[in-house]
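Please, does this match?
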Amino acid sequence: MPQKIGTIAIDGKTLRGSRDWDKKHPLHLLHAWSVEDGVCLAQVSVDQKSNEITAFPELISLLEIKGAVITADAIHTQKASIKAVVDKKGNYAFPVKENQSNLLEDIQLLFREADAVQFRRIDAAHTETVEKKGGRVESRRYELLSAQGLPGITDWVGCRCVGRVKRKRSKGDKTTEETVYYITSLDFDAEQFGKSVREHWSVESLHWALDVTLREDGHRYQQRVGAANLSLMRKTALGVLTRDTTTKIGYTCES
């Protein structure tokens, strides 16, 4: 079995309380979250005249990511972003959505062809998980196909496989289903692919904790460097709290 490796989730968050009342532009930070360690490894401010896409390579340049799996939202499924990851010897698993419509259509076609023959005589890998919690059942199927021969795939540096994730959530008489497609440098390692894709959502829990527990959006400090430093301190505090097992407390505790 392939050795499990770390996941670094990249995501952005706006500090709404930092809004400059004259320019009306709150500070937006793009940060790298080590899932296993519960630590913010680095963050960069997104310039008002820029966006997360141009900030991504800058953030990657600050990190030591050799062997780690980088995950991000579909906005970062960009050739320059992937090259930045590969140049630093990292792996990646990025979703493909409408912002890369041609690539998305090619991947969907590849999976439809595999479905038609029930994946027989096709290089593929898959794994499944089922979770039951609070009366909800959530199943996920992670599938990988070889990216070899996919039109234009050589432009996406290091891409070895394309992935499909099928999620099904049931609670009571309500059932929802979702399918998301990916490109990844992971070579038929369905278990690591599934692990990293699932772990990316932990950064959403981080954002929720920053806002609900530490009330980040309510902080009105407007000096941008200071606001960024305070946000980093909050993330560090959350990392310490989640690793402390001496007291039973949760993110929603009152401080």
